[in-house]
Design a protein that fits this description.
By secondary structure, the protein is of the alpha+beta class. The chain has a single domain (56-189), classed as Jelly Rolls (Sandwich), CATH 2.60.120. The chain is built from 1 helix and 11 strands, in the order αβββββββββββ. The chain has one helix at 2-26, and strands at residues 54-56, 73-77, 91-94, 102-108, 111-113, 116-118, 123-128, 143-144, 150-156, 161-170, 183-189. Strands 1, 2, 3, 7, 8 and 10 form a 6-stranded antiparallel sheet that branches. Strands 9-4-11 form a 3-stranded antiparallel sheet, with no helix packed on it.
Length: 190
């Protein structure tokens, strides 16, 4: 029976060592001493898509230079250039929900009456993103409208407004008529 006792001691020792290894393996290695809780830092992630939205003033939808205009006349005001006494009625606002800064691009097409054309370059514009009656918003500081697009404003933050004015030059020799064209103002991620 002596031999059986050794095996029991070895078996019990083996079970004790195995139990100790299992307990060590199951314990959280971050718990030490008399800790009463444990914590873990996890990661959170979200991907917000780019959202760009702009709103144009009602006056911006139909720009008019008036009637009975004479050839050889320059810098004719669009009718709402000084509508807000003295600020302009033409503006675009970057919506507060926009998630990035915005470039505002302006382009236009020729004004046409039948076969007669008044080139888009005869329309000029000036813009200001801080003042609806900015000192730069005069014909001398204006830029010709093109069909290729120009930056009306760059990197405008959400909630901001860009004010602009238009002028028209009517060259000598333009055939009388009612000329109609269009322009586009586009807001895009900067």
């Amino acid at each position: 029976m002596q031999g059986g006792g050794k095996y029991r001691i070895v078996a019990i020792s083996f079970i004790a060592v195995a139990f100790a290894l299992v307990m060590f393996t199951l314990s959280d290695s971050t718990m030490t001493g008399d800790a009463t809780y444990d914590s873990h830092v996890g990661n959170l992630s979200a991907s917000v898509q780019t959202y760009v939205a702009c709103t144009w003033s009602a006056d911006s939808l139909n720009v008019d230079f008036g009637n009975l205009l004479n050839p050889g006349t320059s810098d004719i005001n669009a009718t709402e250039n000084y509508a807000l006494s003295p600020g302009t009625g033409y503006n675009v606002t970057v919506d507060p929900l926009t998630t990035s800064s915005v470039d505002v691009i302006i382009s236009g097409n020729d004004l046409i009456d039948g076969a007669n054309v008044l080139g888009v370059g005869n329309v000029t514009w000036a813009a200001n993103s801080t003042d609806s009656d900015g000192a730069n918003m005069i014909p001398a500081s204006s830029v010709s409208l093109t069909n290729g697009g120009e930056n009306l404003a760059t990197a405008e933050p959400s909630g901001s407004s860009v004010n602009y004015r238009f002028w028209l030059d009517i060259p000598n020799g333009v055939v009388a008529g009612n000329y109609v064209g269009n322009y586009t103002i586009q807001c895009q991620e900067a």
